[in-house]
Design a protein that fits this description.
With about 325 residues, the chain is of the alpha/beta class. Helices cover about 45% and strands about 25% of the residues.
Length: about 325
């Protein structure tokens, strides 16, 4: 028996939709979409969410949920990440969103967010045997997970999200070199001490790949491939090498936001934050001692969907 279902991943920078048809042991992707809403704009721990950011997010969820229902879904699940945990009114905003979603919004703990993101990324790439280091650069935080045989073992959530870092370090446009250097120093120090990164380095010759997921890395991969329109089949499994990432960072740092908006493969909505994301990606690659990041188009939303479908007694294929 087949079933159509969907997941909304309500992040600190974007809302992502995944719609699939599950039939026995397989699923087929029907739609995927993203809206940049920057829910984390101006957010600090213990403060309230910005009303304009909430309005953008609510509107995006209404639009994406309507698109999912138009495809005949019978289940729509929604999860919220760091901004919901950080804001004093995060739980209240999650309750407000129930009318648009048609059900509850689960606020994921930092550990659950990291573990689900890891599972979605590595299973999607087929990295189901041996060690792997996974990174997800989000809007409010960066999740770093070291795991083995597709199971997370050690995780760390760092407040190195692209929205937060852009507001704090790259608020001038264009960004002066000294601002970029200051951000790089902060990020490098933080990721160098990350436990999952140390676990990865301890693997010596037997350590696994560095896998990257999330909007920043997917966007950098699309830019590297010069995609006029996004193609998951090109991005998924592609490799961002040290040379390519270094060139992207230098190019982005030399441009204003308006000039970045003209880059092929970069959505104008991500132009303000992509420089911070490139800084984090480069620092992570250096800290991990790797020459490439393998990019996964799959992530948290895929793992949530798989988990929920399994809970219904259906068995989706490992993807």
């Amino acid at each position: 028996m087949s079933m159509r279902a969907a997941v909304l991943d309500i992040g600190s920078n974007s809302v992502q939709l995944l719609v699939v048809e599950v039939d026995g042991s397989e699923w087929r992707e029907l739609a995927a979409a993203e809206c940049i809403t920057r829910l984390a704009d101006g957010l600090a721990e213990g403060r309230a969410l910005d009303p304009a950011a909430c309005a953008r997010t609510f509107e995006a969820i209404e639009v994406l949920a309507a698109r999912a229902r138009a495809l005949g879904i019978v289940r729509l699940w929604a999860v919220g990440t760091r901004s919901f945990r950080l804001a004093i009114d995060g739980p209240a905003f999650a309750e407000r969103l129930e009318s648009a979603v048609g059900g509850p919004v689960e606020i994921l703990s930092a550990a659950r967010e990291a573990e689900l993101g890891f599972e979605g990324a590595v299973i999607g790439l087929g990295c189901t045997a041996g060690p792997v280091l996974s990174v997800d650069i989000g809007g409010g935080s960066t999740e770093i997970v070291w795991g083995h045989d597709a199971r997370p073992v050690d995780h760390l959530s760092l407040p190195l999200g692209v929205v937060v870092l852009t507001e704090r370090y790259l608020h001038r446009d264009p960004s002066p070199p000294e601002d970029v250097r200051a951000l790089r120093a902060v990020v490098s120090n933080a990721v160098a001490e990350a436990r999952p990164v140390r676990r990865h380095l301890e693997g010596a010759g037997s350590r696994g790949p560095l896998v990257g997921s999330g909007g920043t890395l997917v966007t950098l991969a699309a830019m590297a491939a010069r995609l006029d329109s996004y193609r998951a089949d090109v991005v998924h499994g592609s490799r961002l090498t040290r040379e390519v990432l270094g060139a992207q960072l230098a190019d982005l740092a030399a441009r204003s936001i308006a000039e970045r908006s003209q880059i092929t493969g970069l959505s104008p909505a991500r132009a303000p934050t992509i420089l911070a994301g490139a800084v984090v990606a480069n620092a992570l690659m250096d800290a991990a001692g790797e020459n490439a990041i393998v990019v996964s188009d799959h992530g948290l939303r895929h793992a949530v969907l798989r988990e929920r479908v399994l809970a219904l007694g259906m068995v989706p294929v490992e993807r």
